[in-house]
Q: What sequence folds into this?
């Protein structure tokens, strides 16, 4: 039976043969055995800068500040496209300023280093700003899948003992507000949305107003590679969701594996299909493309309901066709 199946498949599809000469740019791995034998984690760490003055290793510095202080300062780091075609860009310099503001907002709110900052949102600018700003501050970024219902969100906030939640006014009203009293650790809810609408939501703050009034200068404190950086949760399909902790040293693996597995090159423009609420969407949707100095795509709104057809209209070729979580969509 197996032989018949193999024979049938061989008559339906021709084998796919990929040669290095067929690529627009040479792949990072041409000789797998040679690359494997030459690889060392010591060399992988040397691809990153570390905090100035030998003050440790911080994911946000590797993803944002080192580029903002160098030749990629004016390169677009994040590009957000809305369904009507409007575009909003953040250069690496812009992203440094915005994430500095968020780190200072956390200081103003009295959030301590090592305390979880939960984010419940689709791929909007504020998700990236909050994630990287929290990492700069020394807080723990805790992403929540925006398609979760109220109870899964409640359980994860309570397990994490999150002190801060960043979300949109619509998601808060639909999924959090009714259960707010059952989340005793949650002191601050920072909303993204229309200022007039937010003013009518009790017990929340307008994130846009807080960012606008915050200083855009911030110095990352010494950060040990073993300091906690990310708190992800399992799906909970087999029981109570379990927290998975990731330290700042994880950026070494994010950077190295993206270079080899995703074949990142300096001028790539990148789209990640995976939602930031899950590990792939954080490691390879936020962190890795930025540590490589790429341009990453997001969505301004409708991020929870977008379709591959929407992506295609915005020129993100390949994502709609390939069964992968993350793809470079343009080689220059």
A:
């Amino acid at each position: 039976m197996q032989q018949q199946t193999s024979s049938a498949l061989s008559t339906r599809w021709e084998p796919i043969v990929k040669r290095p000469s067929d690529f627009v740019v040479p792949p990072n791995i041409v000789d797998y055995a040679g690359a494997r034998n030459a690889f060392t984690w010591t060399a992988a760490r040397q691809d990153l800068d570390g905090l100035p003055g030998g003050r440790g290793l911080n994911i946000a510095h590797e993803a944002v500040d080192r580029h903002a202080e160098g030749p990629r300062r004016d390169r677009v780091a994040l590009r957000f496209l809305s369904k009507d075609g409007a575009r909003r860009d953040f250069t690496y310099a812009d992203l440094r300023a915005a994430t500095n503001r968020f780190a200072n907002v956390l200081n103003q709110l009295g959030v301590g280093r090592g305390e979880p900052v939960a984010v419940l949102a689709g791929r909007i600018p504020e998700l990236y700003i909050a994630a990287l700003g929290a990492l700069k501050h020394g807080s723990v970024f805790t992403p929540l899948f925006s398609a979760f219902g109220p109870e899964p969100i409640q359980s994860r906030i309570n397990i994490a003992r999150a002190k801060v939640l960043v979300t949109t006014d619509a998601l808060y009203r639909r999924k959090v507000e009714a259960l707010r009293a059952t989340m005793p650790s949650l002191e601050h809810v920072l909303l993204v949305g229309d200022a007039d609408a937010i003013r009518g939501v009790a017990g929340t703050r307008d994130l846009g107003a807080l960012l606008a009034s915050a200083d855009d200068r911030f110095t990352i404190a010494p950060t040990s590679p073993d300091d906690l950086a990310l708190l992800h949760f399992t799906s909970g399909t087999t029981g109570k969701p379990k927290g998975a902790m990731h330290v700042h040293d994880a950026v070494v693996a994010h950077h190295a594996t993206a270079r080899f597995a995703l074949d990142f090159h300096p001028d790539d423009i990148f789209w990640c299909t995976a939602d930031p609420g899950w590990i792939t969407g954080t490691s390879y949707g936020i962190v890795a493309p930025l540590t490589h100095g790429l341009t990453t795509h997001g969505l301004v709104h409708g991020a929870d309901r977008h379709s591959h057809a929407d992506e295609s209209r915005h020129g993100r070729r390949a994502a709609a066709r390939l069964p992968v979580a993350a793809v470079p969509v343009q080689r220059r």
User: Anything to note?
Assistant: The chain has one domain: 26-330. The chain is about 35% helix and 15% strand. The two ends are 47 Å apart (CA to CA). Residues 302-326 have pLDDT under 50 and may be disordered.
